[in-house]
Amino acid sequence: MFVRAEVTVPIMNKAADPDMDAVERFKQGDARAFEWLFRKYQTYVYNIGYSILGNSEDAGDLVQESFLSVHRSIKTFNRRSAFSTWLYKIAYNQSITLLRKRRGHVSLEDIQEEGFEPQDGESVEAIVQARDAQAEIHRVLETLPPDYRAVLALRHFQDLSYEEIAEVVGASVAAIKIRLHRARKMFKDQYERLQAGG
């Protein structure tokens, strides 16, 4: 005869999410929690802005505006998505709004120069070629409609998954895949046209 014994297994708590902890502390008035979130994510927001808007001045402005928006609307944030996704959505929406106001014209005067310092054994010619390639990429990105430019930036510069992009943009995963496919084709066609003309 078998005897059934009750076995109690302790439930391990999931590791606390530091972002959610900081959000909750900030909601309760802890300004240091907001500063922590700002320090953690300011570079991410800058990179989104730079990849979509195309220059460092606008990307810097986007960081300020995005975190001001976070500060004003933190009470509306809920736990249905990660804080980073919510922040990306704010940055994305503000970037698209700025692009549409400018009717898609973005200045190239601030093409980022970082990463072009000579490394050991690297020639000046290689540095110039890399800088030219970056300028060409931004030139082609500027020709794309804002929505296409944004999904390319989120996928290829920010490494967001299809699901994350769908949540940020407010579209289905299927729609994002279609938009990315069209954006890549448009980018390729424009890039080849630029190469043929140059």
Structural features, described:
There is one protein chain. The protein is an all-alpha fold. The chain has one domain (18-108, 121-197): Orthogonal Bundle (Rna Polymerase Sigma Factor, Chain: A). 68% of the residues lie in helices and 0% in strands. The protein has eight helices and no strands. The protein has helices spanning 18-27, 31-53, 56-73, 83-101, 124-143, 146-157, 162-169, 173-197. α2 (31-53) crosses α6 and α5 (124-143) crosses α8 (173-197). The radius of gyration is 22 Å and the shape is elongated.
What is the element layout, followed by pairings?
Elements: H1 18-27, H2 31-53, H3 56-73, H4 83-101, H5 124-143, H6 146-157, H7 162-169, H8 173-197
Helix pairs in contact: 1-2, 2-3, 2-4, 2-6, 3-4, 4-7, 5-8, 6-8, 7-8
Short description:
With 198 residues, the chain is mainly alpha-helical.
